[in-house]
Amino acid sequence: MNPAVRAVTDRIIERSRPTRRAYLDLIEREREIAIRRPAMGCANIAHAYAGTDEDRDALKADAGMNIGIVTAYNDMLSAHAVYYRYPELMKVWAREVGATAQVAGGVPAMCDGVTQGYPGMELSLFSRDTIALSTAIALSHGTFEGAALLGICDKIVPGLLMGALRFGHLPMVLIPGGPMPSGLPNKAKAAVRERFAEGECGREELLEAEIAAYHTKGTCTFYGTANTNQMMMEVMGLHMPGAAFVNPGTKLRQELTRAAVHRLAQIGGRGDDYRPLGLCVDEKAIVNAAVGLLATGGSTNHLLHVPAIARAAGIVIDWEDFDRLSAAVPLIARVYPNGSADVNAFEAAGGMPYVIRELLGGDYLHRDILTIAGGDLGGFAEKPVIADDRLAWQPVGDSGDETILRPAAQPFSPDGGMRILQGNIGRACIKVSAVERERWVVEAPARVFDDQLDVLEAFKAGELERDMVVVVRFQGPRANGMPELHKLTPPLGVLQNRGFKVALVTDGRMSGASGKVPCAIHCSPEALPSHDGGGGAIGLIRDGDLIRVDAVAGTLTALVDPAEWAARLPAERPAPVSGMGRELFGMFRGLADEAEKGASAMLAGAGL
Question: What is the E.C. number (predicted)?
Answer without folding.
Answer: 4.2.1.12
